[in-house]
Amino acid sequence: MLQICELSKNFIMHIRSEAEIYGFDAVDFSAKPGELVAITGPSGCGKSSLLKCIYRTYMPTGGHVHYTCKDGSVIDLATAEPWEMIHLRETELGYVSQFFSVIPRVSALDILTNTQTGRGVDVKTARERAAEYLEKVGISPKLWDMYPATFSGGEKQRLNIANALITKPRLLLLDEPTASLDAHSKEWVMNMILDLKAEGTAMVGVFHDEIAIQTLADWRYEMRERKMVPKDYKMEYASEALAELL
Ligand SMILES: Nc1ncnc2c1ncn2[C@@H]1O[C@H](COP(=O)(O)OP(=O)(O)OP(=O)(O)O)[C@@H](O)[C@H]1O
């Protein structure tokens, strides 16, 4: 469903005499329906930039992101037209960002409802499912009509995750989805991710959390110094192979 070939990103800083900052270089991996690929690695090695290039928040500098759409056609997300990306984001792609940017003066329930009605779901069904997802991520009913600007970091993050998962995307990108969550919240979120995987969603996630990796991932890739470590490890062999690396 997702085949990434030689994907690279450099940043040219026009306000700094065209200085070049390396994001990441020549990344290759693939994900089939229902598989989760975990990306790990030290801070600054390019993990978030990689997800942003797949979602096209960033324009890749080189390489390809071949994605097989619902209708069977294959599109290169690295070079797709902006309108094609907008359409795919509205219909097939999901993204959980590292930091949730709150929409001012819209309640938690309305955020999840609007996400669905914007995709053609009727208001009644959308509100019912919004309540179901808020419950699933453990957000207290007392908070449903509140503005998330006042939520704690963990509550914002759970709302962020519910908002991405409620659309049941075919490809979901997760940037540290379990960071800043306590043990209970982590379990709720991991169960929801497992449910979505079982429905066939392919996922690429940045993780630092070993438990989440062991629970969720089918494949694990390490990034070091802005490159992918050249081997990939199917999870059953991951601990052995990583022990050799470290
Ligand atoms: N918009 C940008 N403009 C310029 N440089 C950027 C931009 N985004 C990322 N970078 C640079 O690219 C490199 C990789 O950053 P990235 O955020 O992808 O790392 P990361 O592995 O996700 O780090 P962390 O684990 O700390 O979130 C860093 O040196 C960063 O400064």
Automatic annotation (TrEMBL):
<dbReference type="InterPro" id="IPR003593">
    <property type="entry name" value="AAA+_ATPase"/>
</dbReference>
<dbReference type="GO" id="GO:0005524">
    <property type="term" value="F:ATP binding"/>
</dbReference>
<feature type="domain" description="ABC transporter">
    <location>
        <begin position="2"/>
        <end position="245"/>
    </location>
</feature>
<dbReference type="InterPro" id="IPR017871">
    <property type="entry name" value="ABC_transporter-like_CS"/>
</dbReference>
<keyword id="KW-0547">Nucleotide-binding</keyword>
<protein>
    <submittedName>
        <fullName>ATP-binding cassette domain-containing protein</fullName>
    </submittedName>
</protein>
<comment type="similarity">
    <text>Belongs to the ABC transporter superfamily.</text>
</comment>
<dbReference type="Pfam" id="PF00005">
    <property type="entry name" value="ABC_tran"/>
</dbReference>
<keyword id="KW-0067">ATP-binding</keyword>
<dbReference type="InterPro" id="IPR027417">
    <property type="entry name" value="P-loop_NTPase"/>
</dbReference>
<dbReference type="InterPro" id="IPR003439">
    <property type="entry name" value="ABC_transporter-like_ATP-bd"/>
</dbReference>
<dbReference type="GO" id="GO:0016887">
    <property type="term" value="F:ATP hydrolysis activity"/>
</dbReference>
